[in-house]
Design brief:
The protein is an alpha/beta fold. It has helices at about 5, 25-40, 60-70, 90-100, 120-125, 135-145, 175-185, 200-210, 235-250, 270-280, 290-305, 315-330, and strands spanning about 10-15, 45, 75-85, 105-110, 170, 190, 220-230, 285, 305-310.
């Protein structure tokens, strides 16, 4: 049996908004994708918190998770992730405690250390709160206390939340969260879908610092992978230009609305921009089924990852659904 066949596969979605669409369509498309991958046997479906981006509709992450969980039945649904510096831990404990109470055994809580927004948006989110990335370890511990069993003389409780023990993952694109996840004995997800450069070092640090915990007896690594798969290599390369245009817009500070694919990116980017987009997609699997399979088998051989979580930024919903179908058929 191949490594891919033995590895759990999941989906990370940003509820992308098209240049000819709106947020309502994006949220409905997200549910359609969740239902699709549930039928295909995927492990989990996560959505990511982003703010002040016109092309992403997943800002109210907990609300969207409730919508997705209500529309599915077996799929694990969660945050990949909640940017903890933006929130009081008690609020997150209450939100995800409520979700876990409504959908027991199906909710995940992935936590990010970066605010994930500009300074103006961060201020609008927090107002006078002093939350910052430096508080992350303490905020994680506080959140764990709220979601764990109630203790004698505990003065602040999360209700719902207390005793739900919602599974917590730490997410990261650098070494800080890798070490913290290892020391706390938590599962770790590396953001290699957009920042692959430090992937191998982060995995090494996580495994090196891992200490068994009540929730995990050995390291568990999940890697983010951009999935740009189609029925042929040529079709995949063509459809991938939508994803390239999105990241080019991000680099330039332009609108992040999804754009249709183009025959060629030549003339649309400068050499340094092409290089930057290429680095962003350094771990992307672009191509037809056999090319995708070969790329993923090499990745698993090199990393020993326990799970892969895939993003797909194709313009047409049908092409996104087909990409995940191709992936499922490779296992």
């Amino acid at each position: 049996m191949s490594a891919l066949a033995q590895t759990k596969i999941s989906t990370l979605d940003l509820a992308p908004i098209r240049d000819d669409g709106n947020a309502a369509q994006a949220l409905h498309n997200s549910l359609a994708l969740a239902q699709h991958v549930e039928r295909l046997g995927f492990e989990r479906f996560w959505v990511a918190e982003h703010h002040n981006i016109d092309g992403i509709a997943s800002s109210a992450t907990a609300v969207l998770i409730g919508y997705l969980a209500a529309g599915t039945s077996t799929l694990r649904v969660g945050a990949g992730g909640v940017m903890l510096p933006n929130h009081a831990p008690l609020v997150i404990a209450e939100q995800f405690g409520t979700l876990a109470t409504l959908y027991p055994g199906r909710i995940d809580l992935g936590l990010g250390r970066a605010p994930g927004s500009d300074q103006f948006t961060a201020h609008a989110l927090r107002r006078e709160r002093s939350g910052s990335a430096e508080d992350f370890p303490q905020d994680v511990e506080e959140l764990q206390r709220y979601l764990g069993p109630r203790t004698p003389n505990q003065r602040v409780i999360a209700m719902p939340g207390s005793g739900t023990n919602v599974p917590i993952w730490l997410l990261g694109s650098s070494l800080f969260s890798a070490q913290l996840a290892g020391e706390k004995g938590l599962p770790y997800a590396f953001a290699s879908h957009f920042a692959p450069r430090m992937m191998h070092e982060a995995i090494r640090v996580y495994r090196q610092h891992f200490r068994p915990s009540a929730v995990l007896d050995k390291p568990y690594v999940m890697l983010g992978v951009p999935l740009l798969a189609a029925d042929s290599d040529a079709q995949a390369e063509y459809l991938a230009t939508s994803a390239y245009q999105r990241i080019l817009a991000l680099i330039r500070g332009h609108s992040m609305l999804q754009r249709p694919p183009v025959a060629s990116m030549d003339g649309l980017w400068q050499a340094h921009e092409k290089q930057a987009v290429g680095e962003f997609f350094g771990l992307a699997v672009v191509g037809g089924p056999e090319k995708v399979r070969a790329r993923l088998e090499v990745l698993l051989e090199q990393t020993g990852a326990d799970e892969l979580i895939f993003t797909c930024d194709f313009y047409a919903v049908a092409d996104r659904l087909r990409a995940f179908e191709i992936l499922a058929q490779l296992r």
